Automatic annotation (TrEMBL):
Organism: Camelus ferus
KW Ribonucleoprotein (keyword) present: no
Top-level taxon: Eukaryota
PANTHER family named in the record: CENTROMERE PROTEIN N
Protein name (Swiss-Prot/TrEMBL): Centromere protein N isoform X2
GO terms classed as biological process: CENP-A containing chromatin assembly; chromosome segregation
Taxonomic lineage of the native organism: Eukaryota, Metazoa, Chordata, Craniata, Vertebrata
Length: 353
């Protein structure tokens, strides 16, 4: 119950049906095991509110109770968008993230960065260009901001169920974008990012993964850190080489020398630390047909021959790192496979020089 300005007592204004449905669908996709953690991170409903909710009831009933609480607190569309951002942060690996790199003009001075000014500028650029668009922000650790954009058109309201997510780290030239982004909106997003962050140009890198933290580690060159959980203190000569003690001593010595060489080369290339997590690397080859023989159908072909090779694994770089020690490949591996973290690429185009 609430009292209006005239002093009359009445029911709280009901939430807009589209906002209520947005809340319902957002809460419905949160797993029961994560529900309390997500709601506490959202920090919209108080502890007292949450204590009134029976989290052991059927999920449909739980969702209904939570939506009613949001309605009582007069939650807005932006509050629902923030809840969706937090859910996405919990499940960031369900998105495919692209990396965009920005640059300044040569010799251009670097101004002091203000996050609030960045947000205001970013939002104004989108709203001036497009009537129906909603933009929401959530600050996180490491000077990062998560941005959620729901696109509409001049005649349609924003589609809250197909948003774009952008993660931008202040004072860096990198932005990470996960979306079903329409190509028509990509230039506008790029303009908003470059102007708001005071850069001049933006390009999409040939780097993509579901693992946002690994992409961040690659572009910020943080992948060579040694994690506490990774034991790399055992000297090479003390590591088990898996040799048969009944084997001829000369063969044992030759195998040991070769295995030590492989271990050394592998460590020099990949380091002795966990690799960033990527699921694939893709190589497109374009080459003209070459032959010492005259004539033939292929010799007369003007178009280049094209070939696509894709390496896939739940953890591609760790899989590549294990190939030579396992005896599956020679050491060292091809630079086309080992250069992925240093070049910040997992899409390659190989053409004739």
């Amino acid at each position: 119950m609430r009292r209006d300005p005239a002093g009359n007592v009445g029911r709280a204004k009901e939430m807009d049906e589209t906002v209520a449905e947005f809340f319902r669908r957002t809460i419905l996709k949160i797993p029961i095991t994560e529900m309390m953690a997500v709601l506490k991170a959202w920090d919209f409903l108080s502890e007292n509110h949450l204590q009134t909710v029976n989290f052991r009831q059927r999920k449909e009933s739980l969702v209904q109770d939570l939506v009613l609480l949001c309605e009582e607190k007069r939650a807005s569309l932006n509050d629902a968008a923030l809840l969706d951002i937090i859910y996405t942060q919990f499940h960031r690996h369900q998105k495919v993230w692209d990396v965009f790199q920005m640059s300044r003009r040569p010799g251009e001075d670097i101004d002091l960065f203000d996050m609030e000014q960045f947000k205001s500028s970013f939002k104004k650029i989108l709203q001036r260009a497009l009537k129906n668009v909603t933009v929401s922000f959530r600050d996180t650790e490491e000077n990062a901001v998560w941005i959620r954009i729901a696109w509409g058109t001049q005649y349609r309201k924003p589609n809250q169920y197909k948003p774009v997510y952008v993660v931008y780290y202040s004072q860096t030239p990198y932005a990470f974008v996960a979306s079903s982004l329409l190509k028509s909106n990509l230039p506008l997003l790029g303009q908003a990012l470059t102007v708001a962050s005071k850069h001049h140009q933006i390009v999409k890198m040939d780097l993509r993964s579901r693992y946002l933290d690994s992409l961040k580690a690659i572009v910020f060159k943080q992948y060579n850190q040694t994690f506490e959980t990774h034991n790399s203190t055992t000297p090479l000569q003390e590591r088990s080489l898996g040799l048969d003690i009944n084997m001829d001593s000369r063969i044992i010595h030759e195998n040991r020398v070769e295995k030590e060489r492989i271990q050394r080369v592998t460590q020099e290339i990949f380091g002795d630390y966990p690799q960033p997590r990527l699921e694939f690397a893709q190589y497109k080859l374009e080459t003209k047909f070459k032959s010492d023989l005259n004539g033939g159908i292929l010799a007369e072909r003007e178009e280049p021959l094209r070939c696509l090779v894709k390496f896939s694994s739940p953890h591609l770089l760790e899989a590549l790192k294990s190939l030579a020690p396992a005896g599956i490949a020679d050491a060292p591996l091809s630079p086309l496979l080992t250069c992925i973290p240093n070049k910040g690429m997992n899409y390659f185009k190989i053409r004739d020089k």
